[in-house]
Design a protein that fits this description.
This protein is an alpha/beta fold. Helix content is 44%, strand content 22%. The protein is built from six helices and six strands; from the N terminus they run βααβαβαβαββα. It has helices at residues 10-16, 26-33, 47-61, 78-94, 110-122, 151-162; strands spanning 2-7, 38-43, 66-69, 100-104, 126-134, 139-144. Helix 4 crosses helix 5 (110-122).
Length: 163
């Protein structure tokens, strides 16, 4: 089962409320191009904004995303973001047979994107995607992110050199 994980971002919320100057947003762009049986969205926005976005997705794709409402002291707090992501991914994996994980980097903050990337190279085997809105064409492009090295190998080598 292919499962897309993403933080809800401001561009996604604006698109769901009809403000389409930046297209349909990163999450909808990914869903337009990616085939996923399940969508799991994390949000640190007020619950009414988050559920509005989930409803918009359900109308658009006839699939209701799973929403994980997360309380963060700051959308740049790496520790809180990390803990929320790990708890969510672990919970979904426990409920799923043979999950294929897809982490979307584009929505949310740079700290949220960094945590997805780090976890995809250390704790989970996941495809990492990003989307880009082209102002000239008005369209979005979704690409798989090619990360040129293994974090765990780099990290272990550094630790061994220090000792």
């Amino acid at each position: 089962m292919r499962i897309l994980f993403a933080w809800i971002g401001e561009t996604d919320l604006r698109a769901a409320s009809g403000q389409l100057e930046r297209g349909v947003g990163p999450i909808a762009s990914a869903l337009d191009e990616q085939s996923c049986e399940k969508v799991v969205l994390l949000s640190n926005y007020p619950p009414e904004r988050s559920t509005m976005f989930v409803s918009w997705c359900e109308e658009r794709y006839e699939q209701r995303p799973t929403l994980e409402q997360v309380s963060l002291s700051s959308p740049m707090n790496f520790e809180e973001i990390y803990r929320a992501v790990v708890a969510t991914v672990d919970h979904i994996q426990e409920q799923t047979t043979s999950p294929e994980l897809v982490f979307h980097l584009s929505p949310g903050t740079s700290a949220m994107a960094s945590v997805w990337l780090i976890l995809s190279k250390t704790r989970y085997s996941a495809e990492v995607i990003q989307s880009h809105f082209d102002r000239h064409t008005g369209g979005s492009e979704v690409k798989t992110v090619e990360f040129p090295f293994e974090l765990s190998a780099e990290f272990i080598g550094d630790i061994l050199r220090r000792t």
